[in-house]
Amino acid sequence: MKKNKLAGKFSLLHRLNTDTVIIGLLPGINVNELTSTDLRYLAAFYLGGAVYRNSMVTGKKIMKSNKWLLSLAVGFLCCGSAYAQTTVKGTITSESGEPLIGATIAVKNSTDGTVTDIDGNYSLKTKKTLSSKDLLLFSYVGYKTLQKNYTGNTMNVKLAEESQQLNDVVVTALGIKREEKGLGYATETVKGDKITSALPSNWSTALNGKVAGLSVISSGGPLNSSRISLRGDVSLNQNGNDALVVVDGVPMSSPMTNPGVAYGAGSNSELSVDYGNGFSDINPDDIESIQVLKGASATALYGTRAANGVIMVTTKSGAGAPKGIGVSYSGNFSIDDVMRWPDYQYEFGQGLPSNIGPAGSIYEGEPYYSYGKAEDGSYASTSGTSSAYGARFDANRKFYQYDPVTQGRASEATPWVAYKNNRKDLFQTGYTITNSVALTGKSDRGSVRASITHTKNEWILPNTGFQRITAMISAQQQISRALRINFKSSYTYRKLNNTPALGYNSNSISYFLIFQNPNVNLDWLRPMWRTGQENVKQLQPYSSFIGNPYVILYESENPSEKHSNVSSVSANLRINSKFDFMIRSGIQLSTDQREQHRPISDVVFGNGFFKKQNVFDYELNSDALFTYHDSFANGLHVNASAGGNMMQQSYDMLAASVVGLITPGVYKLANGVSNPNVQTVIKKKALNSLYFTANFAYKDKLFLDVTGRNDWSSTLPKSNRSFFYPSVSVSAVMNELFLMPEPINLLKVRGSFAQVGNDTDPYKTSPYYGTSDFPGSAVVASTLYNQDFKPEISTNYEAGFDLRMFQNRIGLDFTFYYNRTKNQILDAPMDPTTGYSKATINSGCVRNRGYEIQLDVTPVVSRDFRWNATFTWSKNENKIISLAEGADENQLISSIGNVSIIGRVGGTTGDLWGYKLVRDPEGNVVINDNGLPERSGEIEYVATAYPKWKAGLYNEFSYKNFTLSVLLDGQVGGKMYSHSHHKMTEQGKLAHTLNGRLPGTEFYMSKDDPRIATAGLSPQDGMYMIAPGVVKNDDGSFSKNTKVVTVESYYKEYYRMANVETNTFSTDFLKLREMRLEYKLPGSTLKKTPFSKASIAFYARNLFCITDYPLFDPESAALNGSSMVTGVETGSLPTARTFGLNINLSF
């Protein structure tokens, strides 16, 4: 390619194969005003959308160029022969209906061709008389070439975007748009339609399986708040591993205020309640795309919170809409049920092995059941236990059970049967209805989009769910040739009628599911209250420690009313052809009014309880960015920017609670027996930053990026408040530098080095008194003041390549990364005798390294059928390299119940520790003198919560106007401790406890077994067993255990709460995550309707899960305070399976 200098005339030479084309002087144009970009546009048009060799022009950019220039170019190029025999006319558009300007239409094996005009229309005249055997080729840069047989004088065509190309424009840090071809680091784009394909209530869960190296864990419930992590956990601080979410350039502070703990049984602890986090209310229907920035090179310009990656959410605007006024509607209706249940047993009812009828009673010598003791006192009650090791169910046997009419012991014996749906029937078929309407307007100088979305959710538990209204407006206006203004604002109102409390405590639904016995009819509990004691005494027929599930659902409510807004405004000033200036300001703010209602006779708060929280938070970010860009004759292109950021963050929580209610059912502070206990939490933080970035491109073949940022954080000691971190990345397009085999369309290699800093929460440096819950008082700071701790610093190395082959039918992206995070900021425990409970320290170094692969394949392409497949795979290796000098070798990261997450040199930040079984040198379980497994004296390492690798497979099949998409994803490795499993096994509620109780199972002993008589035990079928293992002899040797024990005592000891080893399970899984079948109405049908686009789709989410994990979902997490703890389950709720219908219409 060679370009002559401009000297009073417009000239451009471009060699294509053997043809040389000269575009000469165009009348009426002052060629001295044409820029090099204008020349490239014209070149691109002549080539039918092909990319000018030294430009970064794409088809999308061409559509946005000046219309007068397009008209001239297209008019000039459309001049054809006047001697045509056949004329073909039509329109070429994108799949979304946008006209493609300058698209090429050609008759195959001929020189006849033309291009579309500014409205996407074309008129092809050819000397040849066409027949149905002739082929026409339709092509456009950035879109897949389409080959169609001649069908008549009118042929309208829609072209699909070519997703395999690397010339796409992507949004990088600070909203700077870059050609993907020039990036020296890995980034992935997820389009908005991939987020809404199965329409989850929380958009972030739709990223699972679609992005290599990304993990999303959720706590469960209607709002399903989540934690997003990229490339593993880098910090020993559990709250320091979240990816930063940025919406339209506005970082989301995403605070999570949870009043309770995950494990609180036996105490007056508040339960964990998921009221949502900052980004959970983003409306999925408003999302245009999500850009995932993983490594430090990609995220460094965002500063401290971007050390763990960035999720950049771009919402929809009117910029891509057709000119004029447009209206679109999206409607969704979905139903939910429970995806997966534990394997409960319904063979044996409530009771213990000791419940044998005494001599002289009607049940003499046999297992029996009795609700309350016999009237004559001949046998005792067996209904006081929560265990299900009682009599086997037999409809021919009758026992005196609970009478729901008298709410006491029945006067007549009734058949002894199981109620197999007495957990499942507590749940309902949930539903979600979403209606969204958007209005767009577009002119030559600007565009606007306004939308309103209403969502109503009834979750799978009765009386739980929410309503959400989101109103959004986006506007862009070209004020002058040099000035452009952009504005976006989104307001959300969310009313949470009730969300179920989470965790293990006596007044949670998960607690009830654990303790429910198989002989209890759920309908017996529906009255809620004792007769005559309504609102005062809840109905608890079997135990005062187990809350009535309907009282929990309908009285122990956790309502919330939240208002939130995310707004940004920016101005872009083009100073001249080389300099631009941008200023932007964005705010994210929310106010949330939350309540907790606990009725009189609540299990934890017997006299009732009421708590009200007002949470207000905001974050204000202001940026200024000055940019220089220029191209030089030697092929060098420079784009350099420098700017600054000012961030202010505020969190204000005011809570007041009363213990005891004067009037039942009235939840007001004034109705409290006690004086209100008032708690205030105020946190403020400021961060000032200066940064720069410089991008160099040489002939679009070699690329170099350099960035630097310096932060000044208010949360660090003055001496270490300022910290600087740089990044460098390089990439080279090898197929343009060297001769490659013909099948290779692109081979790009890339590498990067970067550092990014991280600060900490406010007030860790405060040496003064702290506030108290009591008016007019203060408390001594519990954290030892440290004036020397430093910011965390993460150093990241990344290398990889991008390969495209066989006309982009195969695409492979590979990345290797290595990250070290030092100066971990932790609160380390201290000896209480010092007067402090903890001290803020810098503790050691954590390393993460791993591999990421994304393979895109188009195995089949035909006229009517297309198959696209995307496979993602990632592996992360986490390792603690060092801890603080002099610190305890075991760094406690988290502790819930009897399981601890402990960091140790050589281990990971997700290592589970607890008691294990004692074993002999051969690995056999050592049995104690009592015939039960011996207890270990010290906690040990059990397993890591982190998987070895994760993978996802997305397939899309398109046939004519039908599209079927299927997403499978899963993981291998990683384990989770389940407290629910411990408790249900201890009580004999799970099917695996039938081993030893049912004939034919491994541990089963019949009553005729002589070993029972030898042990002097009462002969009973399926009551006894011999624990597998060995006993230690006096001489130190081991021999096989022969002692007879009850089945119940074995399971109770083997799976005891403290035995973390036996209650920890693999979280390997394979999920059918999403499926969608969509039909788009063809253009011929749409012409008969008022619609420009219309589609209908059926979708499903979480269809099935294949796993050995024994509870609801291997992706569970414990919500403990403000942390989501992976690897621990303490009373989880089921995951919902969804089936839905989606309708989209455009006018």
**Biggest sheet, open or closed, and with what strands and sense?**
22 strands, antiparallel, barrel
Morphology call: globular
What is the count of β-strands? 63
Mean pLDDT: 86
Beta-strand content estimate: 35-45%
Pick out the low-confidence regions: 1-84
Radius of gyration: 34 Å
As an assembly, this protein is: single chain
Tally of alpha and pi helices: 12
In percent, how helical is the residue content?
Answer: under 10%
User: Distance N terminus to C terminus?
Assistant: 45 Å
What structural class is derived from the secondary structure elements?
mainly beta
What would your notes on this structure say?
- The protein has 1147 residues and is mainly beta.
- Helices cover 7% and strands 44% of the residues.
- It has twelve helices and 63 strands.
- It has a 22-stranded antiparallel barrel.
- Strand 54 (1030-1032) and strand 55 (1038-1040) form a beta hairpin.
- Residues 1-84 have low confidence and may be disordered.
Give a short overview.
The protein is mainly beta and 1147 residues long. The protein has a 22-stranded antiparallel β-barrel. Helix 1 packs parallel to helix 3 (67-77).
Provide tags for this entry:
12 helices; 22-stranded antiparallel beta barrel; five-stranded mixed β-sheet; disordered N terminus; 44% strand; 1147 residues; mainly beta
Topology:
Blueprint lengths: L11 E5 L2 E5 L12 H11 L12 H5 L3 H11 L8 E9 L9 E4 L5 E3 L5 E6 L8 E5 L6 E4 L7 E3 L9 E3 L5 E3 L7 E5 H4 L18 E5 L7 E5 L13 E4 L2 E2 L35 E7 L2 H4 L10 E6 L8 E15 L55 E6 L2 E2 L4 E2 L4 E3 L13 E13 L3 E13 L6 E14 L4 E16 L10 H7 L33 H6 L5 E15 L4 E20 L10 E23 L4 E24 L17 E22 L3 E12 L8 E12 H4 L6 E15 L11 E2 L6 E2 L3 E2 L7 E14 L4 E13 L2 E5 L8 E5 L2 E17 L3 E18 L8 E6 L2 E5 L7 E4 L11 E2 L12 E5 L4 E11 L2 E11 L2 E4 H8 L23 H5 L9 E3 L3 E3 L5 E3 L3 E3 H8 L9 E3 L2 E12 L2 H4 L6 E15 L9 E4 L2 E4 L1 E2 L6 E11 L1
Parallel strand pairs: 3-9, 15-18, 38-42, 48-54, 52-62
Antiparallel strand pairs: 1-2, 3-6, 4-5, 4-7, 7-8, 10-11, 12-17, 13-14, 15-16, 17-18, 19-24, 19-63, 20-23, 21-22, 24-25, 25-26, 26-27, 27-28, 28-29, 29-30, 30-31, 31-32, 32-33, 33-34, 34-35, 35-39, 36-37, 39-40, 40-43, 41-42, 43-44, 44-50, 45-46, 46-47, 47-49, 50-51, 51-58, 52-57, 53-56, 54-55, ...
Helix pairs in contact: 1-3
